[in-house]
Amino acid sequence: MTKITIILLLAFLSISGFSQTEEFVYKNTEFGIEVKFPSKPTENTLNNTYVNQKTATLNLVSAGLSYGLLIQKSIVKIDMLKTFKDAGDVTIMSNYTAGDNEVTEFKMLAGGACTRYKIINIKKILILLSVTSQSCAQDKDVLPFYNSLKINDIIAQNPNIDNSKFKTFAIDYPSNARTDTVTKVVYVNSGSKTSYQYEKLSDVDKNIPQNASTNPYHFALIVGNEDYSSHQLDLKSESNVDFARNDASAFKEYCSNTLGIPEKNITFLLDATVGQINQGIAKLKLLSKASNGKSQLIVFYAGHGLPDENTKEPYLIPVDVNGANVTSGIKLQDLYSNLTEYPSERITVYLDACFTGGGRNAGLLAGRGVKVKPKEGVLKGNIIVFSSSSGEQSSLPFNYAKHGMFTYYLLKKLQETKGDLTYSELSDFLSEKISIESLLVNSKEQNPVVNTSPNASEKWKSWRLK
Question: How far apart (Å, rounded) are the C-alpha atoms in residues 305 and 277?
Fold first, then answer.
């Protein structure tokens, strides 16, 4: 997939009101592409190895739908369907031609999420439309989006079905969508609360050590889930996780600058839905498979974690999941199983989250009122997990530094050592510093823990971070 130009548009849509808004028409004149989104997204440019890559997001997600458009140009024809078949359970729904275009419609179940896809191949250009949900979206949510696609002014829709009622959007969308309820002006631009900007106000955000060498087999998935209340309109702002986006943003810079992970090898998600996180996990797994045992994987997660009250199984909680539907989240044991499905030199997981129901804020559990001690899973492969707290403790913020307590001291040690330290040295530092500072700053115990697989139990202490 070299020499690729990617333009990626994602719009998160919901039905939380009943007033019609003007739909947003996206046009790419270079490829003669036009497609309608139900409302206009916010655009911002990403800084990575691809050129002209953009993302667009609209926080209308109470229905849990994520609409996407992907355009790829390559020197060879792309067999995207094969990639999807390798990643999940694929069901072909239809194949047809629209003019000179080959079109395939299918659905894929992967990682607890269902995505309806439409692939259009035009010589060496690929167009991919998608609608992701926790359960497969219905035709009324999918077909208007699919059938609004025009290629050189010709609608690319299935000639074998009645498309007449799907040519325009017949769904009501809210005119005043709640966007970003995290309004701390200390690191979010006060003039634009619809977007997050990482401002380097802490000492660990500055003077990040530089490492000239990189490793093409090092890959990372970094998630900072902070703003839950704007994605779920029945939640209050107390449900948000203070500084989680700062945590992820800073850790990303240490990965690329200090640990030598190439920018293109990092999947970076802020305020991520269950579909987005599952796609990130699936990508990391496929990268591990393709690396033939040479990969080193890193997963960093800052956000809410919750246990299932009945099974006590711990779950990562995406921004479109809450205490009422915990099992719709990312089961921690499933995460570990995916990461270790294929051999890797090393897998490191950093979790700045607790799984007892007592996170940095307790808003997601307002109706439950009790903490649950999560069950510990069984690890396999060469994996080590650094968790921010143990037992029935909470993972707390470090308000002065604008980071989580665990993340701050993790970054502090990377800064002081320039990443040149063993896992044992990192573990000892985190255990001592966080245990003391949490009592001094938050007046509560927080004792980080390390869990390893039997495979790694004898060797993890001598592993080096870079």
Answer: 14
**Structure tokens, 57:** 């997001």
352 touches 404 (CB < 8 A) = yes
Strand-pair category, 54-57 with 42-45 = antiparallel
Residue 65 carries which DSSP code? E
CB 403 within 8 A of CB 204: yes
This model's pTM is above 0.85? no
The DSSP secondary structure of 166-180, one letter per residue, reads GSS------SS----
| Spatial distance between the Cα atoms of 378 and 57, rounded to a whole number of angstroms | 37
Of 354, 15, 387, 345, which is closest to residue 175 (Cα–Cα)?
A: 15
What confidence tens digit (pLDDT) does each residue in 31-71 have? 677 777 765 554 433 333 333 333 333 333 435 677 777 77
Fold of 5-166: Protein Transport Mog1p; Chain A (3.40.1000)
CATH code at 203-462: 3.40.50.1460
| Token output for 231 | 């994605």
Q: Determine contact, residues 204/188, Cβ cutoff 8 Å.
A: no
- Between 50 and 253, whose confidence is greater? 253
Kindly provide the b/e burial profile for residues 206-235, where b requires at least 16 CB atoms within 10 angstroms of the residue's own CB: eebbebeeebebbbbbbbbbbbbbbbbbeb
What strand order describes the sheet that includes 150-151? 24-28, 33-37, 150-151, 154-155
3-state secondary structure 401-412: HCEEHHHHHHHH
Bridge partners, residue 268, by sequence: 222
CB 433 within 8 A of CB 441: no
Give pLDDT tens digits for 374-387: 566 678 999 999 99
CA distance 31 to 49: 21
Domain residue ranges in the chain: 5-166, 203-462
